[in-house]
Amino acid sequence: MLDAIRKLIGDSVPGTPGAHSRVHPHDVRVAACALLVELACADGDFSDAEQHRILEILQRHFGVEADGARLMLAEAAAANRDAVDHFVFTRLVVKDYDVAQRIVLAELMWQVALADGALDSQESYLMRKLASLLQLEPAFLAQARKKAE
Q: What is the pTM of this model?
């Protein structure tokens, strides 16, 4: 499990560990961040609490510095706006992350959904939909939610 978490937070950009430069839109970290942004926007309001939580996740779990986190968030939001559907992101995550890493991502997604203090029905629906696209069993989703709470 620890190896899975280390791979999730590992920085795939060559160079200094933890440094973040412009990344390719098909970078799995951008895809994962785009899912976080989509979830944060599901209720029609991308709150400051949700944005702050995503930036914390990018720094803590993805290993990028503050400026890199803001850049990655902007890239993910742009990729999210340009995407036809969620499948483009979930396909990349399923390809690059094993089940344990996807469970960690689900936990982070729950943290974003719960960041504003309320779980909207659209957020709950989107979590179930994304979990299915991420090939996560309902029990894994429930376990991730308990950890996030």
A: 0.80
* Intra-chain end-to-end CA distance of the chain, in Å: 20
φ and ψ of 93, to 5 deg: -65, -45
Distances, alpha carbon 12 to alpha carbons 7, 72, 107, 112, 146, in Å: 9, 13, 21, 23, 29
136: left (phi over 0), alpha (psi -120 to 50) or beta: beta
What is the Cα 52 distance to its own chain's centre?
13
Domain 25-148 -> CATH class: mainly alpha
- Look at residue 4 in the predicted model and tell me its pLDDT: 45
Tens-digit pLDDT profile for residues 95-140: 999 999 999 999 999 999 999 888 888 988 999 999 999 999 988 8
The CA–CA distances, whole Å, from 41 to 10, 22, 97, 101 equal 26, 24, 24, 23
Contacts of 119 (CB under 8 A, 6+ apart): 113
